[in-house]
């Protein structure tokens, strides 16, 4: 129970469905701040109190479990390390993967519970053979199946999402008000919970030592210098501080962050178009495809609120690997924009979440030679 309206209503529905329910709030931070800033952040002392009040109304036992050390190691430290490596991580995916449906689920099962029930907007359906599948929620505007794409078959077997078939968030709020929950009109939390003021760049600057490096174009020519590569993300336009204008007069965007050489590569907007993404760290959510080595049609989603894009996916050997390593290669029908290593690509077949991968590499739809030729012609 996060202290929000969704988990409160989910707990109440689980009780009414006949389950023996215990409310648990996760203490994920030991920061001294107790109050959220507007709708930013979550998991504060204020949230814990809101969750307890809801549990009291429902009439269920309520506990606070301290997972702050595990959260720091598996989510916060991972977030810092990924940015330092020039990647763009999704901490919500890591929290679901390593905390809520790993550490929490492991403890719950050890204590004799059957499942972890949350207020996520997603649905679990059963196929003709009795296999559980994760599907989008009926309210696509609130669908959260993307951030649950990291769930494995075993984790899916011990998960419950009572809000999956709810038509809208407004209906959940109305139900909460009818039940007397004080959180009925509480704002949704957003942004990164451990950076409640939303200043990711400033937060990282305090934890990753800045080092001056070069800003290059796609041909390797030096255009300027930066004060720390960690401050840049793929697709960024503002704050590049390049004195030399592009030959065509158009703005430049960050195309790559190379931590080994501490360089940032910039180029035209067209070069952000990506025709292929791939990741060697991939999992299947539910039953895996019978022959994933054979290319299959799917949809791919690369951000929580992005539209799914038609694509073809296939598991292939990693080029040059001597250990038999494989990777999930996804080729969208139309190029994707602003994709960065570290992001999560979730694969769907219809409304079903089939699996996911952490993006290791991308292939631009516009080769360097083509861009150089276009610039010369201009």
From TrEMBL:
Keywords assigned by UniProt, alphabetized: ATP-binding, Cytoplasm, Disulfide bond, Methyltransferase, Nucleotide-binding, RNA-binding, Transferase, tRNA processing, tRNA-binding
GO terms assigned for molecular function: ATP binding; methyltransferase activity; tRNA binding; tRNA-uridine 2-sulfurtransferase activity
Record-annotated tRNA-specific 2-thiouridylase MnmA-like central domain positions: 203-267
Organism field: Cryobacterium psychrotolerans
Site feature: Interaction with tRNA: 120, 343
Entry's Gene Ontology BP terms: methylation; tRNA wobble position uridine thiolation
Name this polypeptide is given: tRNA-specific 2-thiouridylase MnmA
Main localization category: cytoplasm
Gene: mnmA
Record's catalysed reaction(s): S-sulfanyl-L-cysteinyl-[protein] + uridine(34) in tRNA + AH2 + ATP = 2-thiouridine(34) in tRNA + L-cysteinyl-[protein] + A + AMP + diphosphate + H(+)
InterPro entries (alphabetical): MnmA-like, MnmA-like_C, MnmA-like_central, MnmA-like_central_sf, Rossmann-like_a/b/a_fold
Recorded family membership: Belongs to the MnmA/TRMU family.
Residue numbers annotated as active site: 95 (nucleophile), 193 (cysteine persulfide intermediate)
CDD domains: MnmA_TRMU-like
Role of this protein: Catalyzes the 2-thiolation of uridine at the wobble position (U34) of tRNA, leading to the formation of s(2)U34.
Record's subcellular location: Cytoplasm
Catalytic activity, EC: 2.8.1.13
């Amino acid at each position: 129970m996060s202290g929000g309206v969704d988990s409160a209503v989910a707990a109440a529905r689980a009780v009414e469905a006949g389950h023996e329910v215990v409310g648990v709030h996760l203490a994920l931070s030991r920061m001294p701040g107790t109050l959220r800033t507007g709708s930013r952040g979550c998991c504060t002392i204020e949230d814990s109190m809101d969750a307890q009040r809801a549990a009291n109304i429902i009439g269920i036992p309520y506990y606070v479990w301290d997972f702050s050390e595990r959260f720091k190691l598996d989510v916060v430290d991972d977030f810092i390390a990924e940015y330092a490596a020039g990647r763009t991580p999704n901490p919500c995916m890591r929290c679901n993967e390593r905390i809520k449906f790993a550490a929490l689920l492991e403890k719950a099962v050890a204590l004799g519970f059957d499942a972890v029930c949350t207020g996520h907007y997603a649905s679990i359906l059963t196929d003709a053979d009795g296999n559980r599948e994760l599907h989008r929620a009926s309210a696509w505007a609130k669908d959260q199946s993307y951030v649950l794409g990291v769930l494995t078959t075993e984790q899916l077997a011990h998960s419950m999402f009572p809000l999956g078939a709810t038509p809208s968030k407004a209906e959940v709020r109305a139900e909460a008000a009818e039940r007397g929950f004080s959180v009925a009109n509480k704002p949704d939390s957003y942004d990164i919970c451990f950076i409640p003021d939303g200043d990711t760049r400033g937060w990282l600057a305090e934890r990753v030592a800045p080092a001056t490096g070069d800003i290059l174009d796609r041909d390797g020519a030096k255009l300027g210098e930066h004060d720390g590569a960690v401050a840049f993300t793929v697709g960024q336009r503002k704050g590049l501080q390049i004195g030399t204008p592009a030959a065509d007069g158009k703005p430049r965007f960050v195309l790559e962050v190379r931590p080994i050489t501490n360089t940032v590569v910039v180029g035209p907007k067209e070069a952000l178009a990506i025709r292929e993404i791939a990741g060697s760290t991939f999992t299947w959510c539910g039953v895996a495809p019978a022959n994933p080595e054979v290319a299959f049609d799917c949809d791919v989603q690369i951000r929580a609120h992005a539209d799914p894009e038609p694509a073809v996916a296939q598991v292939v050997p990693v080029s040059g690997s001597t250990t038999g390593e494989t990777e999930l290669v996804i080729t969208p029908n139309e190029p994707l924009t602003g994709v960065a290593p570290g992001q999560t690509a979730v694969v769907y077949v219809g409304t079903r979440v089939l699996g996911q991968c952490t993006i290791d590499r991308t292939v631009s739809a516009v080769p360097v030679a083509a861009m150089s030729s276009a610039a010369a012609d201009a």
